[in-house]
Amino acid sequence: MKTISLFLIGLLLLTGASAAVSAEKKEQTDSRIKELISKMTLEEKLGQMSQFDPGQLGGPENAKQAIKDGKVGSILNLVGASAVNDLQKVAVEESRLGIPLIIARDVIHGYQTIMPIPLGLAASWNAEVAEDAMAVAAAEAASEGIHWTFAPMIDVSRDPRWGRIAESCGEDTYLTSVMAKAMVKGFQGDDLSNPKTIAACAKHFVGYGAAEGGRDYNTTLIPEVQLRNDYLPPFKAAADAGVATFMSAFNDLNGVPTSGNEFTLKQILRQEWGYNGMVVSDWASIAEMIPHGYAANKKEAAERALTAGVDMEMASDCYVGNVQALLDEGKIDMATIDRYVTNILRLKFELGLFERPYTDEALAEKTILTEKHKEIAQQAASESFVLLQNKNEILPLSNEISSVAVIGPLADSPHDQMGTWVFDGKKENSVTPLTALTEKLGDAKVNFAKGLKISRTKSTEGFAEAVEAAEKSDVVLLFLGEESILSGEAHSLANLNLQGRQTELLEAVKATGRPVVLVIMAGRQLTIERELKLADAVLYTWHPGTMGGPAIADMLFGETVPSGKLPVTFPKTVGQIPIYYNHKNTGRPADYEQWTDINKIPAEATQHSLGNTSHYLDAGFEPLLPFGFGLSYSSFAYSNLELSSNTMGAEGAIEVSVDLKNTGKYEAAEVVQLYIRDRFGSVTRPVKQLKGYKKITLKPGETQKVSIVLKAKDLEFFNGKDYVVEAGDFDVWMGTNSKEGLHAEFSIN
Hints:
Blueprint: H1 2-39, H2 42-48, E1 50-52, H3 60-68, E2 74-76, H4 81-94, E3 102-105, H5 118-123, H6 127-142, E4 148-149, H7 173-188, E5 201-205, H8 224-231, H9 233-240, E6 245-248, E7 252-253, E8 256-257, H10 262-272, E9 278-280, H11 289-292, H12 298-308, E10 313-314, H13 318-328, H14 334-350, H15 363-367, H16 371-384, E11 386-390, E12 404-407, H17 433-441, E13 446-449, H18 463-471, E14 475-481, H19 502-510, E15 516-521, H20 529-534, E16 537-540, H21 548-556, E17 636-643, E18 647-648, E19 653-662, E20 668-678, E21 689-698, E22 703-711, E23 717-718, E24 723-724, E25 728-735, E26 742-748
């Protein structure tokens, strides 16, 4: 006990000393910032508040002159340590005040070692995987002089027509919040001044993922209750995790563009949350308030953005050209400008740029695409894969198989498997499924035919070769989906079926009588009801990144076991969108007893409400696949759902537990998911909400008690006036997805 006490005393002294050092460092930094600002001209202050691509400045030499004159505080889209150091030297050694540049880049899901798209990372339901993946991205980007990334994108996204759903963590607020914290930690580590970390950016603040009709940049109409309950929590989680920056979005939110929105940027972010980091606009989003119809000109746009609280303007020049006039007219004051410059300079100090402005130009070679990084990428890909179907347990395949047909436009497409928002990944570094399967099985066992040149090809001229490959093989591995260019920013789709003649290619190889394993690479959920019926097994791999091929090959042959779960609901048809698990109920909720199938309506039927429920006559009311769904090569049994208590107070907690048994033949991981329903509230509540989960690995026959603590605080919601925990009755489920689970009840009193 004495040893322990001495240890604790030492720890407390160390903690106190550390806090004192931290406070002293902050005081010194604040003092240096005040001194710098006292020396700065307005032009230099506006320079710090301006971010440009070198091309916008007229090329390298003009950029150098602008930097020397103090007109630029940040550069984006500059690649390579040598090029960065070249411009940084001008800022540090030739400008009047020697303030270093902050170099930014879209490093969304990897720099050169490309990870699965963020939607795929969310499908892992593994925060550690997401954190490790972003740490790799940060280290590689930092080795080439990048200090700041515009990620993570944590827009809750419920419309797969929206191309940027690929960058999101899906439809659920809780899962997105968990991933937001993990990604911020991955990028930033514990210390931003560490040369292997970069500043993260929580984007897009806020509501961008609810773009009307899934059309990018579109209007978003989100009532405040829904905004606060569904769309804001991931951003609050990022802020609490210490995210260095926020980005205001492109969209008009309830009539006010978010880059000029005082309610979200000033009231919520700054005042309610107490956030003191830096806010940057999205690309030209301040100037875009003019076509939005919210500002008459650049001067008015600058006034609205400055009043709302945007510290740095990206790409456009509203600030530079108009702040002097706004000051002269008294529409803004110098204290506001100084506050914004302070936020920017503080970030530069936190990144250690004043002490360490240059990047070691030999670092990249030792950092990028290391074996360790590729291992992390392969692990991330493997955990992101979701097994949607496995008829007759066709998977995993035996290594003793005599031959396989590898068919499809995405079987050997190194560029497309990297996915959207990949600026620096190189296709020559991607290992494709064809390459990995050939290495695993040998040339003699692999019969390859593309079938279609690309996913959008409408010609069937390659079908004959594909059918021939299938006929001389024991099994068909068919790689379909969408090219990377079909998802991402400004790549919305009205039709989510497989493009081109892909489904017909599936039908052609299926007609050979060979079993067909369908592997789908995509940036979003697709409408694949027809394909599920045709294929024997379906593995959804999203766009899996650099090491997607080996991860797929290992999983097909049982060296790894699927553990991914869907972070989004899969619709049967586009006409069901929006469809998501945590919807509200109607006064006439649909059920199978009252659902009327369009094919059962008699001719000339009397016009009436046909069952009085909320459903589509032709598509029903349920999705193709529910949120949280995902199969395994093994099987799991849930039993003995227990609650530590059936009641709790408004500040209490209960423990919810279940026995999970691996009843199959393989060691495997299962994501145990906890959902609740608040039956009655001062505003209507969703039919289900994810409130916790654990990913558990079990050996065959092993049973483990899985417990999740549910706090009353977890049940808090915004009711239009306040955040409240209301007394009442609740349902709770623990199970394998949002549709299936053991059920119990509890109450808050």
